Amino acid sequence: MEKKKARNGKVDLMKFLFSLVVIIYHFGNAVDYEHEIFNKGYMAVEFFFIVSGFLFAKSLSRVKYEKETLASDSAAFMLRKYKSFMPYHIFMVAVTFAYLFIHNGWNIGELAVNVANSLPDILLLQMGLVKQQSLLGHEWYISAMLIVMFVLTPIVIKYRESFTKIAAPAVSLLVLGYLCRRFDGSLNLVFDDTGFFYAGVLRALAELSLGCLCYEICKSGVLEKMNRYFLMAAEAAIYILLLVYANKGLEEISPYVVVILLAVAVTLSFSDTTSVSFLNNKAVSFLGKISFPIYLMQIVMRQIIAKIDWQYGYASHVLLYVVSVIAASLVCMLVMDNVLKLFNKPKSK
Q1: pLDDT tens digit string along 156-168?
Q2: Angle, to 10 degrees, between the axis of helix 70-103 and the axis of helix 314-344?
Q3: Measuring CA to CA, how many Å separate 43 from each of 13, 50, 195, 203, 213?
Q4: What would the mean pLDDT of 92-113 be, rounded to a whole number?
């Protein structure tokens, strides 16, 4: 049996940092201060899409194509992917509705109606259906990713190299170009209408495909022929540039150039050539793991913290928010990890 490779510490660290960027960006949309930071923090979602595309292609590279079992293999892969999101998602749904039930003073009937209307969100299908209410709107990213992966999985399994080497770059180029022309260069797109799909779905398609291309480049070994220190310097420079861009800087750069730069940085981060061993430890791995609960738990904490009549300025307000989100995320992990251990505990004979 092939030994499972350790997690990538650099990618885990960047996941944590970009999860903070995106929640601070969303907090800025809920408050009104003069000197907010990360006003373009939505770009962090591009990082997560590209990383997800890379890992998607890597995971499917281990699935052998068999004509007779293609449908069942694809379904099994997507079921595992879907189930991997559900524990923390279920916790977040329960906390969200408990908060809204208390805060809004709903009766049982009103709670039932809101839960029913939120079923697309609860099932992570909101990006494929008609938009109604969206109490869990920030999860559009997960929904769009799952929908696109559902379509791409059998294609990637059957036409692995043709997709990663030819179709993926073509799809990325054409879809990003279409979005650029349709929405005047903006990439902050979610439920925007494209005539058939939500723009967020196309955004996911383009960037997941780009992540697949990143995997192909990394796997090819071309980076191993280049100078390690040059690549590490380029990687660090790109991430710094992107953080500056997300924080009101370098506004002249097109969002689509930012996506390409992110793809380069992600490829470098996954490359063994630029590996930094001291980051491959349990502490950094934990930061990578908590980034997903942080993304999920932000909505409830934002509704609570943003409504506080805060008298001490933006810096302390956003710090309180970030600390609160991290604390809620730790509770989420503690509860759901122990619940999973309980359910997965082998039964005694």
Answers
A1: 999 999 999 999 9
A2: 130
A3: 17, 11, 24, 12, 19
A4: 91
